[in-house]
Amino acid sequence: MTGYVFAIALSAVVVTLLFFLLRTRRIREKYAGIWIVLSIAVVVLGAFPELAFWLSRLVGVQTPVNLLFAVGFAVLLAVCIQLSSEVSNLEEETRTLAEEIALLRLEVRTGFDRGRELHPPPPDGASGPSAAHGAAPAPPQVDGSTDVDRLDHEGS
């Protein structure tokens, strides 16, 4: 088996694997797209090897292998930068969600909604139904520590 046939067969396996991963939702379309395009490019270069020689002469590279290594390096660098960007965005989103959950836990545990009482006590001398039948207990007093400090001590 020649190297060209091997490259075409390997690209076909990669495309099949990518479609399987897409169907099972283990990879998103925006990530699979680049790999499918690269696999198709390998199939084209495997089917028409003279195209690699023509491209290397066009660019001014001595051998097509050097051009393939340079293009491969550039593609992998671009993929690494793109994935680093995605990871950074996900870290920021995770941090924001953790802060929102911490604030919601504080509201649920203390009965306060960021400074406002959720269940204000009835006015002095009021005889409403909540005062007569023992309404919900008054919210605990805030001791001056920050919301984050309190959640750190309670959650740990």
Automatic annotation (TrEMBL):
Coiled coil: 80-107
Protein name: DUF2304 domain-containing protein
Domain of life: Bacteria
Region Disordered, annotated ranges: 113-156
Keyword Membrane: yes
Transmembrane segments: 6-22, 34-55, 67-85
Biased composition (Low complexity): 125-136
The UniProt record lists the keyword Protease: no
UniProt KW keywords: Coiled coil, Membrane, Transmembrane, Transmembrane helix
Basic and acidic residues composition-biased segments: 147-156
InterPro entries tied to this protein: DUF2304 (IPR019277)
